[in-house]
Structure formats: structure tokens, C-alpha cells
Amino acid sequence: MLSNQSFDLFLGAGASISSGIHSGSDLVWHFKRELLSVSGKINGKKFQDLKVEANKKVIQSYFAEEDAKVTNHYSYYFEKCYPDPLVRQEFLTNLIKDKKPSIGFMCLSALVSKQKINTVWTTNFDDLIEKAISKLDISCQVVSPENAKSVQNYRNDIPTVVKLHGDFRYDALQNTDAELQHLEENLHNYFLQAATQRGLLVVGYSGGDESVLQTLEKALEKPNAFPKGLIWCIPKDIMPSERLSKLIDKAYAQNQRSGFMVIDSFDYFLHELYTVCELKNEQIDSIANERFEQRRFFRLTQNQANTTPVLLNAIKATHFPKTIFSTKTKINGEGKWKKLREVLKDSNIVAAFSKGETLSLFGNENEIKDVFKDYLTDDLKPIDIQEHLFHQPDSFYIGMLYELIEKSLVNDFGLALFSRGRNIRKVFSVNHPLNQEEIKSIPSWLNLNIPKGYQVFEAFEFKVEFVNKDLFLLICPTIHIQTTTGEEPDRLTVQNITNIITSNRWNKKYGEKVNFWFKELKRRKPDLTFRLGDFEIKLSDYYATAAQKMGNFFCFDSYAKIKEPLIYFHHQDESKQSIHPINGLKILGPLEESFGTNGIASKIQLAIIAPDTGFEKVKTHLESLLNPVSPTTEKEYLKDYPGFDAVFKKHLVIPNSIQNEFVVAINSVEIRNYSAIQFYELIKSKIDKLALKNSEIDCVVIYIPNAWKNFRELKNEQTYFDLHDSLKLYAVKKGLRLQFIEDKSIGYGDQAKVKWWLSLGIYVKSNGTPWKVKTDNTETAFVGLGYAIRQNARNKVVLGSSQIFDGSGNGLRFLLQPIEKPVFYNKNPFMSKDDAFRLVTNIRNTYHKIDPVIGLKKLVLHKTTHFTRDEMDGICNALEGIDNIELLQIQQFSNWRAIKLRKKKDGSGHEFDGFPIDRGTIIQLDEFSFLLWTHGLVQSNELAKPYYQGKRGIPTPLLIKRFRGTDPIETVANDILKLTKMNWNGAELYKTMPVTIDFSKRLSVMGKQLEELGNKAYDFRYFI
Predict the structure, then answer these.
(1) How open is the CA angle 109-112-118, to the nearest 5 degrees?
(2) Is the pLDDT reported for residue 230 higher than 60?
(3) How far apart are CA 575 and CA 596, in angstroms?
(4) What are the beta bridge partners of residue 786?
(5) pTM of the predicted model, to two decimals?
């Protein structure tokens, strides 16, 4: 650590990106787009996402010759786009005004406040530094070209901000070549003087303008330049220019203290400096706490008129243990849990370590004292359970409740227990084999086959959930399979039988099973009490309901149903709308078509990688995309397929022979004895060959026949390899998008379905935009986070992945980033505070680069696991300056179920409906959580009849939990439902998961492969 004020700080445009103010290189693309749009050569709205390579390629095709003649693209195109200096200044003012300083500027202000840094030089003309300094109630003096003549009179003991190119509030800003050619003479001399006294730390600056570089070069002509060093910070994956490298080499030769420093981002680096310097500032340190207060209750506005009650699979407990026996024990150290299980063997006691040597217990007091007589070191005391343990799903207390219920179900209810780890807790009745009537009701085409020696019994999985400090027992009817000899049944056989039987249990049948199990529990033990010594859980007289109270049963009365979201097929005309992707494409055409062609060739060039013996087969399959075909199944949803050109208004160009330049054939004989990795290396070499023509290829089709199935994966303790995923990642770096075709799709019975799915995939991967959704605020980013664990012989690394796009569906982006300091809770990985800060800063910067003139006012973050306090603190720090933040856990595998009811025809009550609960149903559980059915019944005049997608079992809701945020519950639910229609990797009506979670989980699994992507964000089309 050097003494205070050893360094001045020099900030470039990169420091302001996270606050929504863009760098010159990003603005160049905006200027070029505007020039083309005004001249009518393109529709600018079609090219809104300026980070999509295909968009940049089209825009650049008009400027290739002009670029070659220009030295400073920023100033040249800025002046060409806005010739009037007054208009240029107004453009920049609008870009800058009302922007809020990010945490990097806050930390910079703290460094200034504590006199670690006294002078900040900047080429930026925004006022973010001054805003941040004023937030901390510090005075500073601002020097700019306007007042530079008096610079020598400024006091050295007051923090100084030197604006080399002007201040947007006062000065005529310098932004064109002529304006930037030379620094104002007084500022130039002031800088040279400072360069002989202190070091210089450069952040967020690429060295792009001549005036500053010339001044730096001039400073280095003096023998005592930058005595403490010239440290130039560069982001990861960025290479400095040759001129900049020479500058740093010259500085190093003088003082041996100069060099490049690789950083994540301006915000992260300044926060690290703030932390390393052990500074304390109440406003910075309280950012996360202030965000913590921004968690508003969900309040559902509803109209319950004409609602029919819904039956839930949850039974409310009227009583449960709120105290527990506690004592100290000799059982401790390594292996203490194993020893505890040995002591408890065959007893009627439940025990768990709550902290260190403290033992918590349920059971009879005398039995506990007898069983533990040799191990207790303290008296047995009843203590109250702390309420926060109710809400921790992995707490020792919740685990003890499960064990209490399990023991009682076996001992008192006479049921058999099947348990696998923490997640599967199932009981079954050997007196209730699956009846023949249900077996006969299963359609023959499902090929149900129960092997000889296998037995199938009625069963239910159970879960305990706390809602508003109330305990509920959730019962999920299922089946249990075992062999007559007691051997472990074959896992795949069990899975197949279970899937067939449970998928055939629709709403009415599932309701009957739920009812059966309640009556069975009541018959076996009429008081419905799980008891263990002095402790008991007593259940209500029946399941809870929702929407409308029935009898004395507990009711979740906060209920609503939201409409099926519309998708739009025109960029302006909102009458071009539909709920139905296929119907919309067929009648209205893809969204992209609404922009017009602007002279761009409307064709899609395919390339093919295939076995030499399979080329004709895959060519014929692709050619069939050009022809119409009618569906033979799912006619309530599927529509006649009219042919690729007719749907997408683009001509599909398919190589017509194996000798075609866009075909790479693989010798089938040559690879016969290849390993999976050898085959992978071969395909990579073929991709390399096609990559030489990547500017001409829109999509590469890879045909994987059944004969190649041994090459598809290699998964063991040392290696996790999936051919599909690894090739996708490899092709990203080569600028190619892949479409895989397998024999199962070529031979699939309903070719209309195959054609819709395959044609949409090829169209989207070829940079097509089929439809969009509409959100209330376009300045919104939706982000999904997923985790996976990379596994190899040496280590395990947790990977985080994110998928980002704005409210209009622009800028879908994947970011694969290693988590450097993972934290594990019960084998689930979470981010450290630093990792969360780093990741979300990267996300924020990526969003801002989508379009320089769109700001970011709201960020919605979706994650499947809960948010830890460290994660929330890191995220909130990274998002300083953004007012609206929603942190939402979206839990996919919830145990809640709802059975739809209908009024009996005779009006005597209700009965189970034949149809499942409606998609879009909301049932609020407590102030911060609700259930949302993204899968369920959809009724619309665009569908031939009521439609239940997939027709399997009953739908599972998503459990949504809010950790931060203030949006109404209807807004949160509507956004999630809309995002289930934004996954263009399929033509179904919807996905059950929002695209944020669906894609981020998909990418995180891809991240387990051997291929690396670095920290760069990529267009999502490479990965679907």
C-alpha cells in the first residue's frame, strides 16, 4: 500500500457504462444505424439490438469502404449523423441527464473523501463523479476547458475533477476530430505538471482520442514522469492497441512500476479498492440494507364473483410442536451423526444436532433419558423453537418434523416407508395394490408392461410447508413399485411404469386419489394425529381450498386468474396479435417480415455435416420442409404446415449434392472404432472447415443417425461430455449456429409437428425474429440465473449462467461466468457477495450495450434457489442507481397441487372436474409468496377445443417467492407468464418455465462441458 494521494485517477467512458452512458465505440453503431435508417436503406427498429453480430454485419456492409478512409470513427460518424454542433450537444445532454452514479462512483467518492485520491482526470462530460461526491457531502472543484485559464489558482487541498473535453452543463462539448485534436493548453500543462508528482491509475479508457495520447506521450519525455507508476486497467478479453502497449513499455522502462492490470469492471475494481483500503461509509455500506427495506407485500386484487372453489392437496395442522427437548451430549466430533443413528436405532425418538454438542429431541422424556443415559452431559430442558427455523427448508427442526411424521405413519398408521435422501419421502400401503380397473383404463399405445415379479402399490409422497407460521402437510398421490422377492427393482423400469401410470391420472382421477388417502389416514387413525411421546402434529378435518371457502375447511382466499398473454407479429401494428404461435405465423407472418426487406436477400443458406451414407436421407428430410403437410395428431392445436417459404417468407437454400461446397461428409467406415472424444475432435475439424465460409452460412445442420449413438455422451466421475452441448459451445467461437437432426425426428409419426418445430428452429438460428411479447416498460431487463457444477479429475467449479433481454424481446443474451468463491448449502451452490457483485455488474454492462439510447430502469432477476443475504448484498451493490429491482425465486418442483372442481348438476355441492386447473391461475400463500400455474387448461377461439398441452397428469404450479421488489403481484405473474411464450426453441403454445429460467438452466448445464467461453455475452441463437 502506498501513501495517500500517490496516484491520480484517470476515467474514460468505460467507467460510465454501468450508469447507462455509452462508450464511443458503442455510439458509432448507433450513428451508423441512424444514417441508414434516415436514408431509408434499413428499418432502424429491426436492428435495435446492436450487439447481434448479424445486425452489425448488415449495417457494416454499407460502410466498409468509408471506414477504411476514416481514422476516428466516433467523431467522423457523430458529425455526419448530427452536422449541427448544437444538435450534437443536445444529443449528448439527453444521453447523460438524469443518470445516477453506480457504486463505483460512490466508492471513488469515499476514496476522495479519505484523501486516498485527490485529483480525478476524465474525458467524460457527464456529472456522475460530482453527483457521487455530493451524495457524500464532500466539496470538490471542477476544472474544464471553460475555466481552465484559472487552473493554476485552484487549491491543492480540495478534491479536483478535471474534465478534459468539457462539462455537459456548461461547456461546448468536444466530440469531433477537430475539437478533440488538442487539449486546451492550460489543461495540457496542468496535466504535465501532475505527471511529475504522482502516479496515474487509468480505468475505463481505451486510449481512443489523439489529444490525451499525445499528452501522455509528452509527459513520458520527462525523466521523472509518473514516479509512482502508470497503471492501465483493461477489462478481461480486451487487447490493448500497439500504440498503447508501446506507451506502457516506455513508462515501465522509466520507473519499473508501470503496466497493465486486468479487471472485471470499473464498479468491481473501485469497490475492491474501497474494501482493501478498509474504508467505512454509511451510505455505501447501507445500500444493501436500504434495498432490504424495498420488499413490499403482495396484495392480490381480485373479484371472487362466480369463482368455483379449488381443492388443494394441503392439510392444515391445527397443532404442531413449538417447543423441543434440548440437552448436551458426549456424542461429538467427526462421525457424530453416524453415532447418533446407532444410539437411536429401534427407538421411538427423533433427535438432531442443532448447534455443536447441543442435541434437540422429540419423544417420551423417560425413554430419552433411558436411551441416552450414557451420553447426556446436561439436563433435558424444553425450549421454544425460534420462528425463523419455520422458514428454513433445510433446518434441523424441519428435518425432525419429517422424522416425527415418518415414524408415526409407520408405527401408528401401519404404512410402509420408502425414503431416498432429503427429497423423496414416500409411504405406501401393501394392502392396496394398484387395481386392475385403473390398469385397463391406460391406453394400449402407452405400452404399459409390469414385469412378472413386480408389485405396484398405492402410495403418496409428502412434504411439510410453513405458510404464515402455519404448518401444512402436502400429500401427492403416486405409486410404489417393488419386487416380490424384496430385491431393488430396475430403476429405468420403475421410472417407465411410474411415468405411464401417473401421467394417466388427470384432474378427476387425481382428485379421487387425494380423497382416497385422506379417508385411508382417517380410517387408520380417526384423530389424524402424528404423535411421538410428548410431541404431536394434529391435522384438520380435510384439505384446504382456494378461491372460495367450503364448510369449515381452511381457505386461501387470495385467488385470481390472468389471461393467456398475447404475442405480436408486427413491430408497430398491435392488431397483428395472437395467443397461438403457429396460427400467428401462418396467418400474420413472422415479426421480422413487418420491417420490410430493405434490399436484403431473403434467403437462408444451410450447410450440412452428415455421414457419407446418410446425406441423401437428411437432404430429403430438409427438402420436405418446402412442402405442405397436415397434422395427424393434436389437431386442437396443430395447424396445416404450408411449407417453409410460405410461413417465413424466406427461401431455404439446401445443398443438393454431397459435392456441394456447403456439405462436409464423414466417412462411416473410418470412424467405426472411434471413441466419443475422437469423434468429437473429428466433428470439430469439420466445423473449422465450414467456419471459413461462416459469413455465407446461416445455419449448419448436423445429422446424427442412430448408428452414432455411442458418440453422443461420456459421463463418469472424471468426465462430463455431451456431444450436442460441446459442439454448440465450440461453434459459438467459430460464429456458426447448429441445428441437430436425429433419426427419431425423421421417422416421427406426425411430420407436421416435426416441420413446424424444425423450420422455426432453423429460421430463428438464421437471425429470424418470429414474434415478441409486450411489457409495460421497455427499459427493463429480465435475467435468469442458473448453476451447474463442472466436474473433472482435478476439481469442481461452480458455474453461473445468465440470460438477458429487454421487455420487447430484444437482446436475448447468454453469459457463462465462473463463480470463483462458491458457497454450498446442502450441496446446492450459491454465490459469494463478491461473485454476485461481479456477475451482476457484467450483466448490467452487457444490457447497456444492446442499444446506446435505451436506459435501464428496472431489473428483474429470476433464480430457482433462494437468495442468500450475501447474494442479495452483492446484487444490490452492483445495481446501485437502478431504482426498481425484483429478486424472485421461481421454484419449479413444488409439491403443491390443485384439483379443479365444478358444481354438481343437481346443485347439491361440488365434484371433481374432468379438466385441470386453468393456466394463469394465481393462489397467494402469504405476503411474499404465491403459486402460479404456467401449465394448465387454455380456452380460446384460436383453439379447436379446451386445450391441455401434453395431456399428462395434473399440472404443477411454480412457487414464486419475493426477496426484493415492489411490483404488484399481477405484474410479477403477468411477466412470468409472458416469458413462458418467449422461448423460440419450439412451436408449442407455451413452456412451463419462463425463458429466463429455462435458458439459464440449459446454459448452465452446457457450462459443465470441456469447452470454455470466457466472460463474453453471446446471442442466445448459438445455444438453442
Answers:
(1) 140
(2) yes
(3) 18
(4) 801
(5) 0.86
